[in-house]
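User: Show me a protein chain along with its predicted structure.
Assistant: Here is one chain, sequence first, then structure tokens.
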Amino acid sequence: MEQNSQLEMKEIDSKKKLLNSYGKYSSIALQMLFIILIGVFGGIELDKLLDFQFPVFTLVLSILSVVLAIYYVTKDFLKKDDRKKTKKN
């Protein structure tokens, strides 16, 4: 009887960990998406406002937003990884 409850607890813990990882990675994807969208639409609006023939700000801000999104996500991921290491010790 007690073994069954222990197995159920392990199953519940396993499902919680899986759900947590889904939440973590989906939040990372959404953060990247929002950073990139802000850069792209900001560049488009600046190009419209300044009436450039070539979309300079769209290109520059798009590239910068992709780099910023990768940096932010990498920094966040490494910080979370360090927290896991300190918890294990």
